[in-house]
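Q: A reviewer asked whether we had any structural model of the full assembly, not just the individual parts. We don't, so I'm hoping you can provide one. Inputs are below.
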Amino acid sequence: MSGLKTITIDPVTRLEGHGKISIFLDEEGNVENAYLQVPELRGFERFCEGRKAEDLPQITPRICGVCPVAHHFASTKALDAAFNVEPSPAAKKLRELMYSGYYIYDHTLHFYFLGGPDFVVGPDAPPAERNILGVIQRVGLDIAKEVIKHRAYGQKITATIGGKATHPVCGLPGGVSKPITEEERQEIEKMAKSSLEFAKFTLKVFDDVVLKNKKYVDLILSDAYTLKTYYMGLVDQNNRVNFYDGKVRVVDPKGREFVKFGPSEYLDVVEEHVEEWTYVKLPYLKKVGWKGLVDGPTSGIYRVGPLGRLNASDGMATPLAQQEYERMYETLGGKPVHSTLAFHWARLIELLYATERTLELSRDDEITSKDVRSKPGPPGEGVGIVEAARGTLIHHYKLDRDGLAEKVNLIVATTHNAPAICMSIRDAAKGLIHGENVSDGVLNMVEMAFRAYDPCFACATHFAIGQMPLQVEIFDHNKRLLKTLER
Amino acid sequence: MEKLKFAFYWTASCGGCEIAVLDINEKILDVVALADIVFWPVAIDVKYRDVEAMPEKYIDVCFFNGAIRTEEQEHLAKLLREKSKVLVAFGSCACQGGIPGLANIANRKEIFDRAYLQSPSTSNPNAATPKVLVQVEEGPLTLPEFYDTVRTLDQTVEVDYYLPGCPPPANQVAKAVEAIVKNELPPKGSVIGPLKSVCDECERKKEEKKISKIYRVYEIIPEPNKCLLEQGIICMGPATRAGCEAQCINANMPCTGCGGPCPNEIEQGAAMISALSAVIGVEEEKEKTYDAEKLISQIKDPLGTFYRYSLPGSLLRRRVMKE
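A: Here is a predicted structure for the entire assembly that you could use as a starting point for your response.
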């Protein structure tokens, strides 16, 4: 068939579906440098061009089936802006309610299925046990059922409003496709109540397993897992964390406000750097500049995600989450917290906030209003920003006269964190690897440095849930490949 | 009874199919009781070399999601074919190419140019793009190269069953697992799903009405109980296999076709164009004001509308690009 070309693949590499870390050792066997490579790109920005604007909220979630709701609403909000239409208060609340449900599902998934096994089962436990099944063994089947139930509640809340949980369809410029009934509202309220208790329980598990274990607390606070960067996150008018709407606030490594901006100004603040050794682009603060993979106030590298959001805010908008927020900063020595492993704690504080917010919204007088669609204006250009579970998510569309996408630019959550993840891995490798004999436990502790970010390379590339399959190559000072480890 | 051996693997896709597996919720505990999961890179630590060491047909059922766009993905598809008794194309990407398959409107160069050179947020004064082999200060770093064209799983290896959907609906996943456990699988080559179209599962009323104007979804608020297509909103229901219980339509939005072609239909896009031509503007043909071209020109982006999930698997396959 014409149009099909033969491509010579040179060299043949078996990496797709892997993250790849290359570790280079010096003459003494200490780590000289380490690289995390992201090995794929799918080209959404290109093939979204020419598509109908209203299809983008359904096409872009296929970037990531783990956080489709985030892409759905970043996209829908970009369309609100591009069609110059303000959704009704009820439509905004429904979107935020659905968004909070998505957080319940996503943060639960991370703690119990992905990041949690490192703590609950143990960082140096045998790999065969370091997974959800190992967690079930430790916490018991009854609790496992609770985990499954509440993850499913998050999905169900999303599906009730969105039509489907994975790859929802409700978002339209100017609103959502349908209201909810009183019966649905009651069911959501019931699920929210149960989820709130479950979130409290989860924080208690974290308390018992992690915070009461001095070894883990020392690990959290150790230099190998510390980076002094800028932080970014959406905040409401009182500078409290908000997942769905508001302005983006950036604080410097001392915790002072560096800039606060609206979606349409993102190009003044964020710029992306390209390296030839990875497919993912490396963002930085434009006004500080790209100084390479270094931290500190003179490097433009910043972090997003749960810890990024908490550091960039002045607090949480709900009472229980606010208490936990204060407790975290008291325990870890004040704001901002630079410990990468504190992402896990921050994530659970956000889980608590998400359940409180879901409950609040489910009881809102306006939530069953039928006024959920406003009339869009003529197509133009727009930027939509939300906080995906893993961090700030930016969709920017330029539409033509027919309402087709002419230009599409996307900066996804894990991409913002890519430079910091590279550094965290390098620093953990430097701190933990000495000599050529690297045990699986040490390797896993290097991996923990990036698992804390809950890196969703489905977003940056296409990785799915979980422990990303990983290949580590270790080179000696003569650049000779010493060892390849896979997990 | 000896426990079954399941494997899950994914290639060019979003991970939503993996979530669809978890969405069978508490039934996942039944699955774990009935089957050993011998390969599932996202959830358990089993290495490629462990799969390579397995005897032929060691895995009872492999659920494979994602399209094929790199040599490594092709290699894994072939390897898992060899090691599996039954290979299931799981989800729209493996079955038809899916949304990542829309990349067949471009090639690698266009995709790279857009991402690394033309993006408004990218500062790239040296016009750097990722390379398969780069010498950094400390040594060599390699990246996999990808093909210009996205392919479906059955354009790569023989497939035994298809479970379409983006993602496959949880009830269909549960049915498939049940059929496997009870050894009641349909004939090889079957699509696991109902033998009907989304229209058959949709509760909206059809009035056999013709349409003379096509609306974009944001332009009108559709009446709740009437067929969306007859209200002028393009709905892929007539050309799409059922199984989803018309979830999108129940949310007031049209079907976009993720279930793939209807039974005995090879070309979903052509089938929809055919269905549309049957309802579009016929009553007005007698009138002088009827202008077929004007009416058709209201259909924007036919490729993204009719082939949203099926471009690589369709007869079109990809955009023809001259060198």
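A: Points you may want to mention in the reply: The mean pLDDT of chain A is 87. The first helix of chain A runs from residue 44 to 47.
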